[in-house]
Amino acid sequence: MTENIKSSPSLYDPNKKQKAGEKTSRIPIKIIPISEVLKKPDWIRVKASSGNTRFNEIKQILRENQLVTVCEEASCPNIGECFGKGTATFMIMGEKCTRRCPFCDVGHGRPDPLDDKEPANLARTIAALKLNYVVITSVDRDDLRDGGAKHFVDCIYQTKVLSPNTKVEVLVPDFRGRLEFALEVLGKQGVLGLPDVMNHNLETVPRLYKEARPGADYHHSLKLLQDFKKLYPGIPTKSGLMVGLGETDEEILEVMRDMRAHDIDMLTIGQYLAPSSHHLPVRRYVHPDIFKMFEEQAKAMGFTHAAVGAMVRSSYHADQQAHLAGVV
User: Fold this and answer.
1) Residue 47 region, left (φ>0) first, then alpha (ψ -120 to 50), else beta?
2) How far is CA 90 from CA 65, 83, 283, 295, 321, in A?
3) What is the percent of the chain where pLDDT is above 90?
4) 215 to each of 95, 99, 140, 269, how far by Cα in Å?
5) Contact (Cβ atoms closer than 8 angstroms) between residue 91 and residue 79
6) Across the chain, which distance is largest between two alpha carbons, in Å?
7) Cα 315 from Cα 89, distance rounded (Å)
């Protein structure tokens, strides 16, 4: 009986890219739906992308060069605005993540082997688009010895060789269990292999980590950014938070204090929007007055810049944020 079940083609296939219910059905802490789905308030507005020539041009160039953006994979609500302005956040190392974070719309599955041509392909595309500022992020690659650190370095290096005036921000995974090795790898190509901004998102408050970030560790994520800052004090560090998962305002403020205690320079805070009914539900919509309070507190705490608002995402207006923080 057991052998028949295991051989059934309808069962779990680790090589398949799983989204929504297929992805979240196997997480350790099950998603508990709320009794009534909250209605989106008036201040949640997404700009439409249809009919935007630059939007369609960017999508076509990405497809021609076999590149993936987190804008598309994570169903970012700002994709129309950002693509329309000719900016994108590139997602390297495939489109299958080794983790199953139930707030995220990026697919889960056993990742494909790394594409050795991706760094050069990415660099050529960035040069062709004549971008002044790019963000490079990735899925989690817990299957790799260095968590993908060398691939990040190769992408940064090739981009800066072809586009020496382009600023590069990286939004990295946590390199869990590989931190020292990953940080060592990041420095092996010299200045051309280093980012202009080092970003890693804490995502939420420590109380919600087991539910929202299975496989991650709050203190480890803080240590990643602090250790990077010790090695490269001249490179700004950055992190982001979502609100609406069930945290309190005071918990957000406490995380912000932890960030500053770990020398994190830049901050983003935005409203969580559930990608589907299979993801964690929105437990509150934070009022603009509360976002304003977070922004004022961030300034008082000494962040060089804080992008705070309902539609803010980690890479949203990253170029403007970097400019205001003195990076560009």
Assistant:
1) beta
2) 12, 12, 30, 27, 18
3) 50
4) 18, 7, 10, 22
5) no
6) 65
7) 7
H or E element at residue 157: helix 149-162
Residue 150 has pLDDT above 80, yes or no: yes
Residue 5: its pLDDT value, please?
40
Stated pTM of the model: 0.86
Strand order across the beta sheet in which 167-171 lies: 68-69, 89-92, 133-138, 167-171, 197-199, 237-243, 266-271, 305-308
Give exposure, 122-151, as e/b (b: 16+ Cβ within 10 Å).
Answer: bbebbeebebebbbbbbbbbbebebbbbbb
CB 20 within 8 A of CB 279: yes
Which tokens go with 205? 């408050």
Are 219 and 226 in contact by the 8 Å Cβ rule? The answer is no
- Is the C-alpha dihedral spanning 100, 222, 283, 312 positive or negative? negative
- Whole-number Å distance between alpha carbons of 201 and 106: 15
Per residue in 167-193, pLDDT (tens digit) is 999 999 999 878 888 888 888 888 899
Both structure tokens of 285: 């919509």
Phi (first) and psi of residue 3, to 5 degrees: -65, -35
Tokens of 129: 């688009």
Q: Which two tokens stand for residue 309?
A: 């608002």
